[in-house]
Amino acid sequence: MPTTPLQSGGCTLTDAGHDWDAIRVPRSVGLSAVDLLGSRCGAVLYDGRAVVYLLVPTGTTTWSDDTTRALGSGSSLVMPPPRRTAGPGPYWRICPGDGGLLTDPGALAAALVDVSRASAGRPT
């Protein structure tokens, strides 16, 4: 059961594993994957420093990839207000929408494979 979220500066510390899990990806890799996903991409949170978080359905904590980390139950994210699109601090690269909060984990995994192949100089 979710706990009462902590709030500061309009941001909320929110527990993963209830309505969503998150996949933490280095910024350059994540944004390249977001470009490949296009309209298939759900909300994308940028921490303002080095990583992006893509929200995926709960239960995606079995994710296994060298450049990513799955955040599920027992993890939390600092969530900005729904329409914050610039820093300082965390903001949405892609804002949560009515039907577009979550990214399909299979499509995300395929996009990340394509990004890693492209960065290694192999055909996608």
**Average pLDDT number:** 85
The largest sheet is:
5 strands, antiparallel
Net shape = globular
Q: Radius of gyration, rounded?
A: 14 Å
Strand-residue proportion: 25-35%
Low-pLDDT segments, ≥5 res: none
- Could you tell me how far the N terminus lies from the C terminus, measured between alpha carbons in angstroms? 42 Å
Task: Give your account of this protein's structure.
This protein has a domain at 9-94. α1 (27-37) packs across α2. It is an alpha+beta fold. It has helices spanning 27-37, 105-119, and strands at residues 6-8, 11-15, 21-26, 44-46, 51-56, 69-71, 76-79, 91-94. The strands form two sheets. It has a five-stranded antiparallel sheet. A three-stranded antiparallel sheet has the order 1-2-7, with no helix packed on it. It contains two helices and eight strands; from the N terminus they run βββαβββββα. Residues 66-90 are annotated as: Disordered.
List the helices and strands and how they pair.
Elements: E1 6-8, E2 11-15, E3 21-26, H1 27-37, E4 44-46, E5 51-56, E6 69-71, E7 76-79, E8 91-94, H2 105-119
Antiparallel strand pairs: 1-2, 2-7, 3-5, 3-6, 4-5, 4-8
Helix pairs in contact: 1-2
Write a concise synopsis of the structure shown:
The protein is of the alpha+beta class and 124 residues long.
Label this structure with key terms.
alpha+beta, 5-stranded antiparallel beta sheet, 2 helices, 27% strand
